């Protein structure tokens, strides 16, 4: 590990702007090293770009689907959100989640090969119409 990645010693006196810049550089180096250890995102079949997946936060992995579902339920549950449309939104979120959860490993995971899903099924998923824009669930 290079010497410039180590924190400054307490005895070193550095002017304030230089201290701040040094901390930014150190943080950047640490982040770069951490990113190097991450697994690359695998090639997907494109399902995560469909409207229903966008409602769910474009999950690629199962744990992302579950986490995003929980966040959406907290945000749109009628007890937490008194708006008129909250009931409809929570029903749609739950319906999408139940369908994805039931068949995630067999036909809905974005990691399943496109040849197994079929081009026509992908096109059908992309052309689905929803009563609200997918991004409006996350704003």
From TrEMBL:
UniProt xrefs under InterPro entries: DnaJ_domain (IPR001623), J_dom_sf (IPR036869)
CDD domains linked: DnaJ (cd06257)
Name of this chain's protein: J domain-containing protein
């Amino acid at each position: 590990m290079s010497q410039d990645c180590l924190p400054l010693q307490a005895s070193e006196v550095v002017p304030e702007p230089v201290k701040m810049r040094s901390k930014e550089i150190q943080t950047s180096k640490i982040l770069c090293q951490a990113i190097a250890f991450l697994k690359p995102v695998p090639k997907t079949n494109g399902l995560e770009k469909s409207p229903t997946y966008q409602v769910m936060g474009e999950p690629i992995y199962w744990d992302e689907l579950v986490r995003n579902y929980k966040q959406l339920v907290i945000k749109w549950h009628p007890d937490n959100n008194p708006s008129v449309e909250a009931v409809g939104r929570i029903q749609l979120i739950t319906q999408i989640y139940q369908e994805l959860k039931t068949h995630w490993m067999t036909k809905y995971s974005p990691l399943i090969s496109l040849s197994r899903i079929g081009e026509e099924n992908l096109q059908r998923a992309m052309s689905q119409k929803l009563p609200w824009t997918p991004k409006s669930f996350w704003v």
